[in-house]
Specification:
With 797 residues, the chain is mainly beta. 7% of the residues lie in helices and 49% in strands. The strands form nine sheets. The chain has a 22-stranded antiparallel barrel. Strands 24-25-30-29 form a four-stranded mixed sheet, covered by helices on one side. Strands 5-12-11 form a three-stranded antiparallel sheet, with no helix packed on it. Strand 32 and strand 33 form a beta hairpin.
Length: 797
């Protein structure tokens, strides 16, 4: 991508933008001011900008107000959480028994105080789940402030100095439902402690070996303050040598990015353990931690049995804490370049560019001390730091072969090579060959072939591992109806993963997953081929046609497998490598799935076509311009695979062509297309834009099976196609294609101002429903429901 900056600017310009969703939320304000001045030898430009974006809550849109649209709010089989403010309590060695020894767990009857066993009834997954969706953001609040400065000074006629400075600060936040507590056999790490019978609030008189609870005192609030600084400066000039004009430059670049995270709503597991341990009523009638002979000073007994009102603010203050973390990245380097013509050929001069570059990258991820030590609820994260350096040499040549001949108005060959020496990955040399051919003036044909090499960056290498809790459908759970070879692998154990107990039921939709960076990553290697044409016919002035084909093959590609993919790849695909990433505990409970960044050994391949049509013409009604951009992907999948893996046709982990298939937050659209029509008449202008996203197929087996298991077979019909075989449940749902329309009207005033007003999503097209996305029932790359109206005013001085 080539970005052309203004070398100089004289005057001043201010812009104000205000927009808001038609529902009255999601307001966006933007303010921008630019001033600059230049002389014969110097120029300077200054810019300041500010943006404020207000939130949109998931509960304020119908599609995102429940865990899965169309399935109600409290069905734990279909997205609702089993961790509720009314609690879920189990007994016995596996935590899946009632106090009388029967199978099941208990929950508080709403309205009851939770002071006796009679206040509880068996937990019903269909009706007792917790609707966590309304408390999430669809659009996160944020504020951005940026300062930019650019200067240039001609020291002599042939030597100049230039400098660019940028500072950007972003303050943003995310909101999630209150922290879920998993204790006892369902807990992780230090959370694997029971609630003893001697807890003063325990109404059962026996040990609670499994407890799930969600307090409603404090939502989880994740705040970020991110500062980015960039400086680039150097000298450039020109000189003559051997009757040739040569240009040179030397540059230095420095950038750093520091992110401070603040998380409210976490709990200290050691304090939870103390507050949920033995307790008693003291002589003053006050609940006290410990025993009468050994009270614990400063401890507050914690009540998980009294429903939403049982867990008081005092309990939350005692056990809770605010997490603080820092993520830092720094990059600096310098380089020198020389360009010019070496000598003349019959078709023109042979041009070259050559240079040297050095770059150093460093970063660290420093989580909160409690989070790092594993004594906190939420996402465990490790401390990681590291860096690497890189030396590079490159050379490029543009060789004119033919010119001004029949069927060869232009024929040029481009050759390039880059040598890279990494401090941590060794050295590599990567060539490139390009071709430009104009058989006639109206047509340009271009082609490229190149080898590529990409080392993992600091974030991929040195971001600490953390735990997350996405929604996962365990293929071994009874609700997924495992059968055939899948059942045999689940119940008999497979590839080192312990067996699950017959009748095992996944406790809830959210399962612990380890995510983050991987210091063991190795570089990617790629081969790229492109072929394209540019057609600008003389017989139709104003028409330009761009058509490009590309094919990119990446060996050892760096990426992330979703936890759903991994667990399915293990049990349905029979891949031992995937099974090595799955850990199960007592009875078969999944305690961890390692879904960090990794090298995909099979590699990745993508092939597609890009088409752009542009037509400009004048009429007595004004000047029109029509631009149509389309991107068509014909193949996206692992190297060497057929179009579709017929042996494993489960869309949750297809290895072959994944075009048109949806994975969580990863829509692989076959076709994306934008059509814009611009009109200008005097001071007035208008633009109408149409955006198109093609349909997608997603795996729907989990929804279908869960709907049947929860006694709602009618809801299973929301899956468009029925399973193929019991062994491969490939029930699918189609995420419909969608068209968005945007419109804008502009006016240039006599006082040197420009006023614009417009609307995005003019027809109020709602996002298509997805059952495979993590939250909100639609992928975040679609528009938030509702029209977005805006106005902007720009004044030049």
């Amino acid at each position: 991508i080539n970005i052309t900056m203004r070398d100089s600017y004289d005057g001043a310009e201010a812009t104000a933008f205000l927009g808001e969703n038609e529902e009255g939320d999601g307001r966006v304000e933007q303010y921008d001011f630019t001033i600059g001045s230049s002389t014969d030898r110097a120029s300077v430009l200054l810019n300041a900008s500010y943006t404020k974006q207000e939130p949109i809550l998931a509960g304020d849109r119908e599609i995102s107000a429940v865990p899965r649209f169309g399935f109600g709010a409290n069905n734990a089989f279909l997205g609702a959480s089993t961790t509720t403010p009314f609690g879920r309590f189990g007994f016995g060695p596996t935590g899946a028994r009632l106090p009388n020894g029967a199978s099941g767990t208990l929950t508080l009857i709403p309205g009851r105080p939770g002071t006796s066993a009679a206040d509880f009834r068996p937990f019903d997954g269909v009706t007792d789940g917790f609707n966590f969706a309304p408390d999430n953001y669809l659009q996160t609040p944020q504020e951005r402030t940026a300062l930019y400065a650019q200067a240039r000074y001609d020291i002599t006629e042939n030597v100049s100095f230039n400098a660019t400075v940028l500072y950007n600060e972003r303050r943003s936040a995310q909101l999630l439902a209150a922290e879920p507590l998993f204790l006892g056999v369902g807990g992780v790490g230090l959370g694997r402690f029971s609630i003893p019978a001697t807890n003063v609030f325990n109404p059962f008189g026996v040990e609670v070996t499994r407890a799930q609870y969600r307090n409603t005192v404090q939502l989880r609030d994740f705040d970020q303050d991110v500062d980015t600084f960039y400086f680039g400066g150097g000298f450039d000039g020109a000189f003559d040598a051997f009757d040739r004009a040569l240009s040179w430059n030397v540059d230095y670049i420095y950038t750093d990015n520091e992110r401070h995270d603040r998380t409210v709503g976490l709990f200290d597991l050691n304090r939870l353990r103390a507050g949920l341990g033995p307790s008693f009523i003291n002589a003053a009638g006050v609940p006290t931690c410990g025993t009468p002979t050994a009270p614990i000073t400063g401890c507050v007994p914690i009540n998980l049995f009294g429903g939403p009102d049982g867990f008081t603010p005092e309990m939350a203050d005692f056990a809770g804490f605010t997490g603080q973390a820092t993520l830092y990245k720094k990059n600096y380097g310098y380089g020198a370049n020389l360009t010019g013509d070496l000598f003349d050929l019959p078709a023109g001069p042979l041009a070259f560019a050559a240079g040297y570059e050095y770059r150093r990258e460093f970063g660290f991820d420093q989580p909160d001390a409690l989070v790092q030590s594993g004594v906190a609820t939420g996402n465990l994260r490790s401390l990681v730091r590291g860096g690497f350096s890189l030396d590079e040499l490159y050379a490029e040549f543009n060789i004119p072969i033919l010119k001004d001949l029949p069927f060869a108005h232009t024929f040029e060959l481009a050759l390039a090579a880059r040598y890279s020496d990494y401090s941590n990955f060794g050295d590599t040399t990567n060539p490139k060959v390009g071709l430009r051919w104009k058989p006639v003036d109206d047509l340009l044909i271009r082609a490229n072939w190149s080898k590529g090499f990409r080392a993992p960056n600091v974030s991929e290498l040195f971001t600490g591992t953390a735990d997350a809790f996405p929604q996962i459908n365990d293929p071994c759970s009874a609700s997924q109806n495992p059968a055939g070879v899948v059942a045999a692998r689940c119940f008999g154990g497979f590839a080192g993963v312990g067996p699950v107990a017959p009748g095992y039921q996944q406790a809830g939709p959210q399962i612990r997953v380890t995510v983050g960076g991987n210091p063991r990553l190795t570089p990617e290697k790629a081969e790229t081929r492109t072929l394209g044409l540019v057609y600008s016919p003389g017989w139709l002035e104003g028409l330009d046609v761009y058509l490009d084909w590309y094919r990119i093959e990446i060996e050892n590609s760096i990426g992330v497998r979703s936890a759903n993919f991994i667990v399915n790849d293990c049990y349905v695909g029979g891949n031992p490598g995937a099974c090595a990433l799955v850990t199960r505990g007592a009875g078969g409970i999944v305690t961890d799935i390692r879904a960090t960044v990794l090298n995909l050994q099979a590699g990745t391949e993508v092939e597609g076509y890009d088409l752009t049509l542009s037509y400009r013409f004048d009429t007595r009604f004004g000047r029109f311009e029509i631009d149509w951009d389309s991107a068509y992907v014909s193949y996206l999948g692992e190297l060497g695979q057929p179009d579709f893996n017929e042996q494993l046709p489960d869309l949750s982990f297809a290895f072959g062509n994944q075009v048109g298939v949806y994975f969580d937050t990863n829509p692989n659209w076959r076709l994306k297309s934008n059509l814009s029509t611009h009109w200008q008449l005097g001071d007035w202008g208008a633009t109408l834009t149409a955006r198109y996203l093609s349909a997608l197929d997603e795996n729907c087996a989990s929804v279908r099976n869960a709907a049947v298991a929860s006694g709602s077979p009618d809801l299973a019909a929301l899956c468009d196609r029925v399973p193929g075989t019991p062994q491969f449940p490939v029930a699918e749902h189609t995420i419909d294609d969608i068209r968005y329309f945007d419109a804008q009207l502009t006016w240039a005033s006599p006082w040197d101002a420009r006023i614009a007003a417009g609307v995005r999503n003019l027809t109020d097209a709602g996002p298509p429903v997805s059952y495979g996305t993590f939250a909100n029932s639609f992928d975040p790359q679609y528009e938030v429901p509702g029209r977005f109206w805006y106005v902007s005013y720009t004044q030049k001085f």
